[in-house]
Amino acid sequence: MATLDEARSAKAALREKVTGLDGVIGVGVAPEFTTSLGQPPREFPARQHAEPDTSGGSPVEVLAEEVSVEQVTGPGGSWVLQVNVTDPGLVDKVPEEINDVAVRVRVLGAVRAG
Q: Cα(15)–Cα(42) distance, rounded to whole angstroms?
């Protein structure tokens, strides 16, 4: 279990480890989001939809209230490092942990302009 400050400090070391791996599209800090058995999943704050503009734009979701870091992770919540990759073959090339902070790898599609 890592604090937000510990995860932020470890992020630079992780970035150095994955530099040069073609297909890494992001390195960041994310809440761990673990749920104990028998506990309901954590609910996110209510959202409201902003009115679309008259030019035909789509509605925008906005948070109905401010959310603190403690509300995101829960009391005593933990943080992990997250690496987003486009190639599943990179999963084994990313360390599972760095500076005692867990690393999660997400395989995503290639990022393309719409």
A: 30
* Contact present, 60 and 50 (Cβ < 8 Å): yes
- The tokens of 97 are what? 């942990």
Domain ranges of the chain: 4-35+46-107
> Rg for the chain (alpha carbons), in Å?
17
pTM of this structure: 0.63
pLDDT (tens digit, 9 = 90+) per residue, 40-75?
A: 554 544 444 455 555 555 555 554 556 555 555 555
Task: Report pLDDT digits (tens) over 12-22.
Answer: 999 999 999 99
For residue 26, give the nearest of 79, 99, 86 by alpha carbon. Answer: 86
